[in-house]
Structure formats: C-alpha cells, structure tokens
Design a protein that fits this description.
- With 404 residues, this protein is of the alpha+beta class.
- Among the domains are: 143 residues, no CATH class; 113 residues, Histidine kinase-like ATPase, C-terminal domain (Heat Shock Protein 90), CATH 3.30.565.10.
- 62% of the residues lie in helices and 9% in strands.
- It has a five-stranded mixed beta sheet, with helices on one face.
- Helix 3 packs antiparallel against helix 4 and helix 7 runs antiparallel to helix 8.
- The longest helix is centred in the middle third of the chain and has 74 residues.
- This is histidine kinase.
- Pfam families: HATPase_c (PF02518), HisKA_3 (PF07730).
- GO terms for molecular function: ATP binding; phosphorelay sensor kinase activity; protein dimerization activity.
Length: 404
C-alpha cells in the first residue's frame, strides 16, 4: 500500500512537471510567433495575435487531449496556408512555431491516442504537408515525400516510445502481482502453521477427552446410570467440538479459494445445541416458532454461533441458573436468550456482563455481518439477556470480517 501511494505521488509530480513545461513552451512559442508573424505573412495587426495563438496554444493540450490539440493545430495550419498570404521571399505556408507544435502533437498522438487514430493522424498530417509544402518551390518539399517521410519517422518513434511505456507498465503490473502472490503464499503458510498448532494443542486433548469419556464406563466399575449418562454427554459434546475444530482446520489448511465447501452449522442444527446443554445439566427451556430449515445459510450460521456463545456464557458465568431461549421466524428472525442469576458461585466465576472477554463483541459482529443487530444487557434480577434481530432476506451490506 505504501509503495502504491508513493507511486501515485510520483505520477502526480510528473504530471505537474509536464504541465509546467508545457505552459512554459506555450509562453515561449507565443512570444516568438506573435512578434515575427508580420515577417512571414501579410496579416492585419488585429488578426496577428489570433493567428499566432493558433500556432502556439495547441501545445497546452499536449497532455490533456493530444488528439484535440492536433486537430486544432492541423486545422488552423490548413486555413492559414489557404487564406493568409506569405510575405515575399517566404516559402513556408505557416510559421516554424506552428510546425514545431504540430510535430509535437503528432508525437503525443502516436504515444497516447488509440492506434486507429494514430493512422488517421499520420495520413492526414502527411497529406497536409505534401499539399501545402509542395507549392513553395523548396527542393525538400518538391520531392513530394520529404515531409511525409519525416512525419512517418516521427510516428514510428512515438510508437516505439509507446511500446516501451506499455512494456514497463506490464512489467510493473507483473511485479505487483508477484508481490501479491508472495504475500498470499505467506498468509497461507501462516494459516497452515496455525492449523498445525491448533491440531497439536487442541485437537489432541479433545480427542483424549472423547476417549476417556467413552472408555470410563469400562475402566471404572460400579458407575451409576446417571454417571454413565454424564460420561456419554461429555463424550458427545467433545466429539461435536472436535468435529467443528476439524472443520476450522480444514479451512485454515485450504488455499482460501473455496471456504464455503467446509461444513458449517445451519439454523436447523440449533436444537442440537439445546439438547446438548440439557444433557450437560443446564436447566434450559426453549421455544421455536417457525421453520428453521427455511432460514438462509448465512443467517443460520450467525444464529447458531450466537446461540452457542450465549449458552456457553450462561453456563460459565451463571452456573445452575435457568436459561430460557425463544426463536421466532416472522418478517425477520428474533432470538432471545435469558438466564437467571447464578445459583452457586464458584471460585473464578465472574458476572456475564464483565468486559474481560470478547464473546459479546463477537456476537454483535456476527449479527452485523448479516445486517442484523444484537444487544446484551444485565437483567434487574441479576441475570443476563441477549436479544438479536436477524434478517431472513439478505440485502447487499458492508461485509464484516467474521471468523468461521
């Protein structure tokens, strides 16, 4: 980004320098053309500044619009050659300044104008000089091809400069794409490293939890049915968490081109969260009004993650408290998650309204990413409540960066 800005600054300075030099040339040309016009042409004094202006001022269009500048310069040269008589002894139908400006405009057209217009300018200018200069009696012009040959060489030189400029731009673009590809590869390598670290640190231990929970009934004798059910619930929750971790690792390990192919939870999977929380001992009740299967995938993913985080916060910050969830699918999707105050306070517990974590901010970001809103506020009775409004018809909005 810094390199791009510095390149734009250099381009702006180059344009300013070219504009300044062009203005200086225009001043010099008019200062030469106006006082010397009476030496080469028979013109009234009142008309002299206008004829000199047609000779000098088209140079001002050199950068802005060279094709228009050429048209003004060539058209005025033809009019002057036809309508303004020369002084005795002058064999050139228009001023030398006019020739210099016209040549400069032909060169600029060859460098910047569309190729088809370059051909038109080349032919028209060659005909202009061939027809007007051939009447002067000058040996160079009388050859019939001297001036057109000079113009042809000028056009070829301009096309060569154009080719060099285009090649340089292509090279710079290629270098920029190479830098972007290098940066992209660095990001992918970092993502792969993070995936490996997550696998080593999290997935391994989660796998151990699943194994311990599943084998506990066989390793420990005399377990009650409630204890067996508890171990089964722990194993089920750990397996679900492990599956989600593997999905995230797959996204991190991919090239980033098709992240939508990674399996993602849907709105229809939300009831499984309630059942899992119930198996884990959370006193939860829930109501669902409407068909969760009809919720769009993006909104469904946001709903799932918000419910997941809300239940995790409730069980972590208000252990033993009753949790009530209501989901309604109407014109938009409404979610309410409320929990009472904690029944038992354990060492290390802190209120759900604490700002020490980023769970609420993450939920608000997920809601905003699909065009919804989310509020999380303490309740007067000491509990906590999360309220979200999510659209069921997604409109084009500014996309927020949301982790999957």
């Amino acid at each position: 980004m810094v390199g791009k800005l510095s390149g734009q600054a250099r381009s702006a300075r180059a344009r300013q320098v070219i504009d300044g030099l062009t203005l200086l040339l225009a001043v010099i040309f008019i200062a030469v053309a106006w006082p010397t016009l009476h030496l080469t042409h028979k013109v009234p004094a009142a008309a002299a500044p206008f004829i000199a202006g047609f000779a000098a001022f088209p140079i001002l269009l050199l950068r802005v619009n060279p094709l228009l500048g050429w048209a003004v310069s060539a058209g005025s040269a033809l009019m002057i050659a036809l309508a303004v008589p020369n002084q005795p002894g002058n064999t050139i139908p228009f001023q030398v300044v006019h020739i210099l400006v016209l040549f400069a405009m032909v060169f600029a057209v060859a460098v910047r104008a569309p190729i088809r217009m370059v051909g038109v300018v080349w032919i028209a200018t060659s005909l202009l000089f061939a027809t007007t200069m051939a009447q002067t009696g000058d040996s160079f012009a009388e050859s019939g091809f001297g001036w057109p040959l000079a113009i042809t060489g000028l056009v070829i030189f301009g096309l060569l400069v154009r080719w060099v400029a285009v090649s340089r731009q292509a090279l710079l673009k290629s270098e920029e794409e190479t830098e972007l590809e290098r940066a992209r590869r660095a990001i992918l390598e970092e993502k792969a490293r993070i995936a490996r670290d997550l696998h080593d640190v999290v997935a391994h231990h989660m796998s151990m939890v699943v194994v311990q929970a599943q084998t506990a009934p066989y390793r420990i004798s005399g377990l009650s049915p409630d204890a067996r059910a508890e171990f089964e619930s722990i194993g089920t929750g750990a397996r679900a968490a492990l599956n989600e971790i593997r999905g995230m690792l797959g996204v991190l390990r991919s090239d980033g081109m098709l992240p939508e192919h990674a399996p993602q939870p849907r709105a229809a999977d939300v009831p499984e969260l309630f059942e899992g929380a119930l198996r884990a001992g959370v006193p939860i009740t829930w109501t669902v009004d409407g068909e969760l299967e009809a919720v769009p995938e993006t909104t469904g993913l946001a709903l799932y993650r918000i419910v997941q985080e809300s239940l995790a916060n409730a069980s972590r910050h208000a252990p033993g408290a009753a949790v009530r969830v209501r989901i309604a699918c109407g014109a938009e999707l409404t979610l309410e998650v409320a929990n009472d105050r904690a029944i038992a306070v354990r060492p290390g517990d802190h209120p759900a309204s604490s700002t020490s974590g980023s769970g609420i901010a993450g939920m608000q970001t997920r809601a905003a990413a699909v065009g919804g809103v989310l509020t999380a506020t303490p309740r007067p009775d000491g509990g906590f409540e999360v309220h979200a409004q999510l659209p069921l018809t997604l409109a084009p909005i500014a996309t927020a960066a949301v982790p999957h």
